[in-house]
Amino acid sequence: MNDPAPTLQQLHPLGILASRPLTLILAIALPLYAAVMTWFGWADVSSPFLAITAVVAIAGSCLSLLAWSGPQFAPFPRRGAIVAVAFALAALGIEASAGWTQNQFIRDDWAGPAIGLVLIALAPYRPPAELVVLGAAATGWAALVAVVESPWFVTDVPVPVFVVVLCAPILAMTLGAAAFARSLIRGLEKWRERATAAVSALDTTRTDWIARSVQQGHITTLNQRVVPFFAEVLLSDEVTTETSARARAIADEFRSAMVEEVDRGWLDGVVAQAARGASATSQLAPDVVDDTWRLSRSLGIDARTAIRALLVALFGHPDFVPNSLRITVSPDGTRCRVVLAATVDCSENRLRSELAPYFAVMRILFPDQSVAFAAPALRLKFSYER
């Protein structure tokens, strides 16, 4: 189920996927930072085991970030954020325990800034309000740790000063990450509203243009087939059996063309367009799309764009077999169920790596998406509200 509050990942999935290397860099740099700071502060360590455990805990937080931000788990789940922050909070508590009675200065403790960096890393994936809640919880925990450790600090200042020193990085990074994410989300939402209005206006114009195009096509067919036939009939003195047979053939051809146009849905047009782009129209099976109830018409703009992009990517794949493509759209209660089956004659690793961006975007728009690939058979399933 999607979160009610939008995230940057949901509004701009490709952009966030492209910036995922930054998450990877953080996942590597943060444990190294913790290890280096622990090494330089080794004189304040009373329990080497706990000191090492604290570094392992922050590494666990980074691994959680890295794992849940992968395209196969998109969109980033709430439980992933909770696990990542929980590991970071555990690192803070363990670091304090590792220097119990020997930690003289709070300013060189690394766990506080590490928690803030974890929350910054979560900014593209979780709603700003959730970041604030997690940051508030982390700030409260850090304040408690500072108060408990304060008797052993050598600096002669009031306890609230220690609390501020430890909590300030967490609070500042949390609020900064939330504000930055909220600003981008508002910008993307305004852009989407303008784009939707423009597309709606274009749809109206395009519908009129398509209607005129279809009408012109019918007139062309009439001029090429029907009018010459009527002229021949008028010039002849009699209607023969051959004339009747030609009339039935022309009528059947014209009727079939009109029925095909009526039955042609949005998804049929997308498949035909993708096939033309790959010069594979002649290789398509006659029954590629089974959308008897025309349920694909209820798809939103984002969903249509993602499906179109995936189909274009499939037709552009060198190992894709065009005549194997089958797409079925069927009702399932209040939802529409879509099943895409195709043959892609390559290894699973290659398929998933090359189509990962498309699957990631599809998973964000359709959270129940499942991708099964047993070479060479690809089967993609997802659903959406009517």
Give me some keywords for this one.
elongated; alpha+beta; Heat Shock Protein 90; single chain; 12 helices
Quick synopsis:
With 386 residues, this protein is α+β, with helices and mostly antiparallel strands. It has twelve helices and five strands. A hairpin with a 2-residue loop joins strand 2 and strand 3.
Describe what this molecule looks like in 3D.
With 386 residues, this protein is of the alpha+beta class. Helices cover 66% and strands 10% of the residues. The chain has twelve helices and five strands. Strands 1-2-3-5-4 form a five-stranded mixed sheet. A hairpin with a 2-residue loop joins strand 2 (320-332) and strand 3 (335-344).
Distance linking N and C termini: 16 Å
* Count of DSSP H/I helices: 12
Radius of gyration, in Å, reads 31 Å
Identify the strand order in the major beta sheet.
1-2-3-5-4
Number of domains: 3
> What profile does the largest beta sheet have?
5 strands, mixed
Low-confidence residue ranges: none
Number of DSSP E strands: 5
- Please give the share of residues in helix: 55-70%
User: Roughly what fraction of the amino acids lie in strands?
Assistant: 5-15%
Classification by helices and strands:
alpha+beta
Instruction: Give average pLDDT, whole number.
Output: 85
Bulk shape: elongated
What pattern of helices and strands is seen along the backbone?
A: HHHHHHHHHHEHEEHEE
